[in-house]
Amino acid sequence: MAFVEIYPDRVKKNASYLRNLCADRGIDVVGVTKVTCGDEKIASAMIEAGIKTIGESRIENIIRIRNSVVDNVDFMLLRPPQKSKISIALDVANIFLVSDLDILDRFVEAPKLRKHHRMIYMIDTGDLREGIWYKEALPELEKAVKIAGGYLAGIGTNLGCYGGVLATPEKFEILLDIGERLYKQTGVRLEIYSAGNTASLPLIEDNTCPEGINQFRLGESIVCGTDVTNNRVVPGTRQDTFILYGEIIELKTKPSVPEGKIGRDAFGRVPVFEDKGPRLRAILDMGEQDVIPSGLTPLDSKISILHASSDHLIVDLTESNIDYRTGDLIAFRMSYGALLRVMTSGYIEKVYRDG
Ligand SMILES: *Cc1c(COP(=O)(O)O)cnc(C)c1O
Questions:
Q1: Is residue 37 a contact partner of residue 344, using CB atoms and an 8 Å limit?
Q2: DSSP of 176-208, one letter per residue?
Q3: What's the 12 CA to ligand 1 centre distance in angstroms?
Q4: Is residue 229 a contact partner of residue 160, using CB atoms and an 8 Å limit?
Q5: How sure is the predictor about 262, in pLDDT bands with cuts at 50, 70 and 90?
């Protein structure tokens, strides 16, 4: 049966390495668990590595982690809650990334608001996902100060997620500059400048992250050891943290080109085929519902992935030196996106391994 092997100790090593790297530059790391769907053991691994704040985008995941983690850690809600969820969000998290005055207003009006709650207002420095567009940020931040007073603890930005915009020192200078201007206008000094996600790590590595930036929110680099925005592995980290296994449920030699008039596949795509003659093909017990086929890399490098429909992943074994049989397992590395889908699938068993 299809399953994913999870190595929390390896994630812990990545977390510890990156935490220390950032600490040397005066930067605090928020450990982001969302790609694992808020896996409790991954959160624990980050905490054991010395990380003091867990970042999650979903309230459900925070609740699950809270129920299993005993240590006293902070929880950051990365995505603003729906209006109907503000009260529960205040119950389970204490730091919030917000980017909307109306939501901020709801937060500070909520009966559940307590002294330990902190708001970080997001500034869009070019990637076009969340945040107030930086050129218009100051007036909105002044309003945010009026609304939230001391609850407004900082500002942040996120890059490399929608627009694929790369982090540069200039992007972070924008954040620091806005904070400085806000201080001049209002007398309020912000404590937190929350800059990076994984895509911003090169600035730490080459020591070009502007002084004053004091928080990075890291998920992919800790969990996968990769940086998809910069298309690289993160130096000093391991990538063998999660391995996916699919079971061969059919093994047959068939032609490489379908026979008949070609319409569209199960997902409306027009398939293209190259005639390579008869091929040895295996069907594995997972599909689009569980994985992103293009994000899988077989550990047996002679295997290629042909296609997937909802529940069938078809791979080509012709070139492999291994004599596979029905019931055998085939192992894969996963991209960030593929891991996200695997961890979200209710059909892939999660198996934790030591070492
Ligand atoms: C997901 C997310 C992160 C972590 O990003 P990685 O690329 O996984 O390091 C940081 N900040 C916000 C707001 C996020 O949504």
A1: yes
A2: HHHHHHHHHHH-PPP-EEEEE-GGGHHHHHTT-
A3: 18
A4: yes
A5: confident
| Nearest atom in ligand 1 to 197's CA | 9
**What is the CB-side half-sphere exposure of residue 339 using CA atoms within 13 A?**
25
What residue owns the CA closest to ligand 1's atom 6?
Answer: 219
Q: What is the pLDDT of residues 179-218, one digit of tens each?
A: 999 999 999 999 999 998 999 999 999 999 999 999 999 9
Question: Is the distance from the beta carbon of residue 158 to the nearest atom of ligand 1 less than 6 Å?
Answer: yes
Please report the atom of ligand 1 found closest to the CA of residue 218. 9
Spacing, Cα 122 to ligand 1 middle (Å): 13
- Closest ligand 1 atom to 217 CA: 10
Say if residues 244 and 331 touch (Cβ distance below 8 Å): yes
User: Could you tell me the distance, in angstroms and rounded to a whole number, from the CA of residue 38 to the centre of ligand 1?
Assistant: 13
What is the distance between the alpha carbons of residues 167 and 112, in angstroms, rounded to a whole number? 36
Chain length of the chain:
355
Average pLDDT over the chain, rounded to an integer: 96
In this predicted structure, the answer to whether residue 147 has a pLDDT above a threshold of 90 is yes
Active site residue 34: yes
For residue 333, CA distances in Å to 20, 159, 268, 288 come to 26, 25, 27, 16
